[in-house]
Write a structure and sequence with these properties.
Blueprint lengths: L1 H9 L4 H16 L6 H17 L4 H15 L2 H14 L4 H13 L3 H14 L4 H14 L2 H14 L4 H13 L3 H15 L5 H13 L3 H17 L7 H8 L3 H13 L28 H10 L6
Helix pairs in contact: 1-2, 2-3, 2-4, 3-4, 4-5, 4-6, 5-6, 6-7, 6-8, 7-8, 8-9, 9-10, 10-11, 10-12, 11-12, 12-13, 12-14, 14-15, 15-16
Length: 304
């Protein structure tokens, strides 16, 4: 980031560093790497500056879309920016797979699938494109297709810990629990058991599906321990565990806090409408009046 800021100081009218700063900051805020509220303003300003100074660069509009997706929740602006990025450079995979990731979290799977496929056609071995193909099928409920695609991602990008985790979840949902267990054993080796809350929630999801109760509880304890250290921090990873154990009020309370605080994971709020987010013991939050009101207030685009 400092090198990019220095590039701007040397040439304030050079647009690309603004795009890179906006994109990096938006993603760092989303993943919780950075929490300084001032950086949100810097990301917003950098995105607008990139578009003003370099309106012919697809990177400018991809950065603008990412900023709106995670920081302002201006859904029409997100789509307009991605569409512009694609129109400017239809042979770049990044705008397609980024757009696909946005489309599936807003429950528009047909178009998400189209964007992911176009990304993979441009670069068949691009890691993010391979991920997009698999994760779209996962949340669309096509578990065998997801397991195949995410397995290919893992095969070609074994350095990605997430490729093991998401492949394991797809395998679990497809009923292939022995295979998912082997993938998660690899995750344990790669991480030394030290996982982020987000990764712990995905791993816990796989264990819960396959009835590995002791391992599920260990993942839950990882997240609870992190919450004890930072009780003031909103951790969306807790939502799934609340839902799994039927604690609807706690799940919706946390969602409410996310919306009020403009947490960047707010964009994922609608995903809890999906059937795969139901558990055998607990139907889900899909019929909870407070949850439904949150979704209505966020005014997401119509899903499939």
């Amino acid at each position: 980031l400092e090198e990019l800021r220095e590039a701007i100081r040397l040439d304030p009218k050079f647009g690309l560093p603004y795009a890179d700063i906006a994109d990096a900051l938006s993603q760092m805020v989303f993943y919780g790497i950075l929490e300084n509220p001032a950086l949100i303003g810097e990301a917003r300003n950098a995105a607008y500056s990139a578009v003003a100074l370099a309106p012919d660069l697809p990177e400018s509009y991809t950065a603008l879309a990412t900023m709106h997706q995670y920081l302002t929740f201006d859904w029409p602006a997100v789509e307009q920016a991605y569409e512009t990025a694609i129109a400017l450079s239809p042979q770049l995979p990044a705008p397609y797979h980024r757009y696909a990731d946005y489309l599936w979290v807003t429950l528009r799977f047909d178009k998400a699938r189209e964007m992911a496929r176009r990304a993979i056609e441009i670069d068949p071995l691009d890691s993010s494109s391979m991920h997009a193909v698999g994760v779209v099928e996962l949340f669309a409920g096509n578990f065998e297709a997801a397991a195949k695609a995410l397995g290919e991602w893992n095969r070609f990008h074994p350095q990605s810990r997430w490729s093991y985790v998401k492949h394991a979840v797809a395998l679990s949902l497809a009923g292939r629990c022995d295979e998912s267990g082997r993938q998660l054993a690899e995750v344990e080796q790669l991480t030394g058991g030290q996982m982020s809350s987000l990764m712990s929630s995905w791993v816990g999801w796989s264990h819960e599906i396959c009835g590995r109760g002791d391992l599920y509880l260990r993942m839950k304890e990882n997240i609870v321990a992190a919450q004890r250290q930072r009780p003031d921090k909103i951790d969306p990873a807790l939502i799934w565990f609340y839902m799994t154990e039927g604690e609807v009020e706690k799940a919706v309370d946390l969602m409410q806090s996310m919306v009020e605080e403009k947490h960047p994971a707010t964009v994922f709020m609608q995903v809890y409408m999906l059937d795969i987010m139901r558990t055998p013991e607990f139907g889900g939050v899909q019929d909870d009046p407070r949850y439904l009101q949150l979704i209505a207030d966020l005014n997401f685009p119509p899903g499939d």
